[in-house]
Specification:
heterodimer; A: alpha/beta; D-Maltodextrin-Binding Protein, domain 2; 48% helix; B: two-stranded antiparallel sheet
Chain lengths: 442, 286
């Protein structure tokens, strides 16, 4: 009898606690946020502080997780497949893979509130799917040729800058190679598992007249079709020439995204192509090397700024999530100072109004070493890292080939293993056709 | 009497029930889900569509399957063979009585005590262009090697695995050696047996079951090694170090972004692991 009374008492207390708990502690809305870590920490500090301030003002609980560059795509895909994506992704990718499957929330109203026409067209285009905006691009991330000017002067080739054609890059690399013993002419990323190898190659693939996709159908695949095929072949041969003539360090095939940064900072390469994360590192850690560095824009520049902010449809709080996204970009001056200037122009603003300010600053000499007005540079950029070219839009196949480092495999097979470029192009054309068919049918 | 026995039987099941439920939930269910998924095609975030044997067909026609299997066999068998030789030699050496034996035994276990990722990080520094190994080569007047290059990457990941894994053999074999009754050696000496004969006719037969067990266990683990390869070569250059675990990961999240195809891949290679598991369990049971 005593046992029964005790058991009933415990049961009653448990039921009471379970009923009272939600009343006493009313559940706060919670947003799970994933971010892609950047190479310039102040950008993350700015995002963190903005999000925390917003959360405090709105009495919302937020959980922010920063993921490594090479991990975010994989972790997002795994989370979506497991049915538990985050509510918001800040500064992340991929986008098309999710947007084209209808997994993201349209952000047309947010873009309109931010003044649509103030956002550069290229950046709007990469967030547009079926006539709707599904993301806010975080920044431009234009590639620059980082050059050790002291070595250039030693080689006596100052007049070769800025290079007027892509072929001149090879000539310059040859002239700069081993001018100082142990310093290679160029740092050419050739790694299997790094985005750098891909977008560095993209300069040459697009620049030599190649093409990936012109429309979302099998007919639109251009990889192995003439005249685009010749452009791709020329780019592969260009890379092979630099590799076989040992103008790039012997470990280039293992490079990951930070490797050309590290090699430049350590002084083992005379030049490399990269967004300004290297410049940021030099300005903050190695001012002596920064003073010897000049930054030029290539005849073909790529915008690597595929980092975007987007909301998964599965969120329980779509309006709150949108409000937070708007809050991040609403104060454009704060965005310019906290996210752009703090990164030493690693990121350039998506807003024309803020780019004008940067341009004025450049004219007044605020950004030494940068040899061209950033505003003019941005206006010149026509290629975006994850957008299929010449289509100019992000597509699932272009993103999955980039996320999966499949183009890197193509580059390595021709450049490192020395396979016949024609055979490799045929194979990758077919693989791309299959991917397009898998996603868009037909 | 019967009811009491039945009661005991029920009690026994009651006590192991949580474990059984855990195994079913976190092990058996995912295996069945994996098999089910392998017969489907699926775009990210979409519902799976039944696709019969299409994933298996794709795999069988794919060079990735064969390249990864060949690489895995080269990687695992070479590594395990060398680890066994080193482990046996060091165990024989440290089974003798001499001053400092305890210290040497302790220090020998160190590589095994490090987690896999720590070993990979250590070897980054060894394999770097101006890393430890090349410094040693240059000090000897030799040319530096590009350790993770196309022709050397497989050798380098095997070397890393050997360095990390040989103490496991050493520990297992040493335990086996210590279990051999000393009387056997004494009797052999009386009969005029030399060291070589004692090794062939006493030591080896007595430690054979131990060697067989550690070889099987190590073979299973080495064939499943992911961290070291992921952190050093990522399966490259090209597909030079693309082993089974790397290939499964790449199919799922990188080159294909295709979970059903990765599921099919794991099922295709599963029999190899099942055979190893069977022999290991059998050996351990004996």
């Amino acid at each position: 009898m005593r046992k029964i009374v005790v058991s009933l008492f415990i049961l009653l207390v448990t039921v009471a606690v379970l009923n009272i708990y939600p009343v006493v502690y009313a559940e706060k809305p919670k947003l799970v946020i994933w971010g892609r870590a950047t190479f310039t920490p102040p950008q993350m500090y700015w995002v963190e502080s903005k999000v925390r301030r917003w959360a405090q003002e709105h009495d919302v609980e937020v959980e922010i997780t920063w993921l490594a560059v090479a991990d975010i795509g994989r972790k997002l895909i795994a989370a979506v497949e497991a049915g538990s994506p985050p509510d918001i992704v800040i500064n992340g990718h991929p986008v098309a893979i999710f947007a084209e499957q209808g997994l993201l929330l349209p952000l047309d109203d947010v873009v309109k509130k931010l003044n649509e026409s103030d956002i550069y067209e290229l950046k709007r285009k990469i967030c547009t799917f079926n006539g709707h905006y599904y993301c806010i691009p975080n920044m431009y991330e234009v590639t620059w040729l980082h050059v050790r000017w002291d070595i250039v002067q030693k080689a006596g080739i100052e007049d070769m800058f800025p290079p007027k054609t892509l072929d001149e890059i090879y000539e310059i690399a040859k002239k700069l190679n081993q001018v100082e013993p142990g310093v290679y002419g160029i740092g050419l990323p050739l790694g299997l598992n790094g985005y750098d190898a891909w977008w560095t190659f993209e300069h040459f693939w697009a620049g030599f007249g190649g093409g990936m996709l012109s429309e979302r159908s099998v007919d639109g695949v251009l990889v192995g079709k003439e005249p685009y095929r010749s452009g791709l072949k020329r780019a592969l041969e260009f890379f092979r020439k630099i590799w076989s003539e040992e103008l790039t360090p012997p470990d280039s095939p293992e490079w990951v995204d930070a490797s050309n940064n590290i090699n430049y900072i350590q002084g083992t390469i005379a030049m490399t192509i990269n967004p300004l994360s290297i410049y940021y590192a030099l300005m903050t850690q190695k001012p002596d090397l920064a003073a010897k560095t000049k930054l030029f824009v290539l005849p073909v520049a790529v915008d690597c700024g595929d980092e975007s902010t987007f909301i998964f449809k599965a969120t329980k709080y779509p309006e709150l999530a949108k409000d937070l996204v708007y809050y991040l970009f609403e104060d454009k001056e704060d965005y310019r100072k906290g996210f752009i200037e703090s990164s030493y122009l690693y990121g350039l603003p998506i807003f024309r109004s803020q780019m004008k300010v940067i341009s004025e600053q450049w004219k007044k000499g605020k950004w030494p070493g940068i040899m061209e007005d950033p505003m003019k540079v941005v206006e010149k950029v026509k290629i975006h890292e994850t957008a299929a070219f010449p289509l100019g839009e992000r597509t699932t196949p272009s993103e999955s080939f980039r996320e999966g480092f499949i183009w890197n495999e193509m580059i390595q097979r021709v450049v490192i293993r020395g396979e016949d470029p024609d055979k490799v192009i045929d194979e990758f054309h077919q693989r791309f056709v299959e991917e397009v068919k898998r996603v868009y049918g037909g | 009497m019967v009811s009491r026995r039945f009661k005991n039987y029920l009690y026994s099941w009651f006590y192991v029930l949580p474990t059984v439920i855990l195994i079913i939930t976190i092990f058996i269910v995912p295996i069945f889900y994996n098999v089910w998924l392998s017969f489907h095609e699926k775009l990210i975030g979409r519902q799976p569509v039944f696709a019969w044997f299409r994933n298996y067909e794709r795999l069988i026609c794919s060079p990735v399957l064969y390249a990864s299997l060949i690489n895995t066999f080269i990687y695992a068998f070479t590594s395990v063979f060398i680890k066994a030789i080193i482990g046996l030699s060091v165990a024989l050496l440290l089974n003798r009585r001499f001053r400092g034996r305890g210290f040497l035994r302790g220090i020998s276990i160190l590589p095994w005590a490090f987690p896999s990722f720590v070993c990979a990080v250590l070897f980054w520094f060894n394999y770097a262009g101006k890393g430890t190994f090349n410094q040693i080569l240059m000090a000897l007047g030799l040319r530096p090697i590009h350790w993770l290059g196309y022709d050397t990457a497989m050798f380098s990941v095997i070397l890393l695995n050997i360095w990390h894994g040989w103490p496991f053999f050493f520990m297992g074999i040493l335990a086996g050696l210590q279990a051999i009754p000393i009387e056997l050696y004494e009797a052999a000496e009386v009969d005029g047996a030399k060291s070589y004969h004692k090794f062939i006719h006493i030591t080896l037969p007595m430690v054979k079951p131990v060697i067989f067990t550690v070889v099987l266990l190590s073979l299973m683990w080495t064939m499943g090694e992911f961290t070291q390869i992921y952190m050093t070569t990522g399966g490259g250059p090209v597909d030079r170090t693309l082993t089974v675990p790397m290939a499964a990961y790449k199919i799922a999240f990188m080159t294909e972004i295709n979970l059903p195809l990765a599921a099919a891949y794991t099922i295709v290679v599963l029999p190899i692991y099942l055979v190893l598991i069977y022999f290991t369990l059998k050996q351990m049971g004996e």
